Amino acid sequence: MAKIRHKHRGQVPPPMVPEEQYGPWKGMRPPHTHPSAVPADRYQRPRARNVPFRDVLSGFPSAIVFLVGVWLLVGQFLIDHPGTAAGISSVWNDVGVGALLVLLGSARAVVPFSTMWAGWLTLPLGGWLIAAPFVLGYQQNGDTAAAIGNDIVCGALVVVLTALSLGWTMRSRRP
């Protein structure tokens, strides 16, 4: 068994647990030893990554933004969408914004500190969802109130949750 030299002093470090001196186990650690048997001054605790609770919490609102994007993609089958003044169906607005929210929300939920840019891109998308029924001129038919309300509520959720997530991220970045 090769002995590893201590880095700084050129000496062989003392074993973590007393070694057997006799018999077939000579020079080896006894099988019945446990780290609690090591004296406290010689025990080195494994280093765990310190993740404060607020760091984990800053990605949670973005996960809900991801779910709002999924709802916009699925909602086209559940809500009757009106046409717009331009003659296009408002479904395409919800599908486009929903797909972008799924991509940006998932990126921000997984690594919130590396993807601050995704949060800043998500804010205008939420604002667009709030303004889209009025800017695109959703045609007022019988059931269009559901589509207009869906876009406004989803947009408000995206704006509030993204602002909350960005605020938590920027606050936990401060020293």
In short:
The chain has 175 residues and is mainly α. The chain contains five helices and no strands.
Task: Describe the fold and architecture.
The protein has 5 helices and no strands. The protein is mostly helical and 175 residues long. The protein has a domain of 121 residues. Helix 2 packs antiparallel against helix 5. The longest helix has 30 residues. It starts with 52 loop residues before the first helix and ends with a helix. The mean pLDDT is 78.
List the helices and strands and how they pair.
Layout lengths: L52 H5 L2 H16 L15 H20 L5 H20 L8 H30 L2
Keywords for this entry:
175 residues; mainly alpha; 0% strand; transmembrane helix; SPW repeat-containing protein
Helix and strand run: HHHHH
- Helix/strand-derived category reads mainly alpha
The rough form would be described as elongated
Q: Work out the radius of gyration.
A: 29 Å
Query: Treating each run of at least 4 consecutive H or I residues as one helix, how many helices?
Result: 5
Low-confidence stretches: none
Strand content: under 5%
Number of strands: 0
Helical residue percent?
Answer: 40-55%
Mean pLDDT reading: 78
End-to-end Cα distance: 47 Å
Largest β sheet strand count, sense and barrel closure: none
